[in-house]
Write the structure tokens for this entry.
Amino acid sequence: MDRADGRRSSLFTKLGLSVLTCNSAIAIYRSWGDPTSVAFVALAFTALLLLFHFLRRFEHARPEDRGSVKAAVWALTTLLTAMFAARVAPLMPPLVGVVVWAMAAATVGGGFWALIVN
């Protein structure tokens, strides 16, 4: 957990970000010859870092300031959902690919309802 003063991260937070960074670096190294894969990993890593940043801002924001942070969180989760669906759906049989996109759309719609509407 984070400390009460909100300025220092816990050991588990640092460990998680270190594992994410190391995993992303290895994925970029292994797919270095494929610019599309490198861009996918780099964009996903950046989006995850931004998502963690905005989630932390949401935790410490005043209730009246949370609207824009919620919108940023929803936009980043939508981006990540669409990225992963676009990467997975072509690998599946056509009917399963449609199901992947339908689940992604349901997730995005549910996230909009939960974060923005409510």
In short: Residues 11-117 form one domain. The longest helix spans residues 35-60. The radius of gyration is 17 Å.
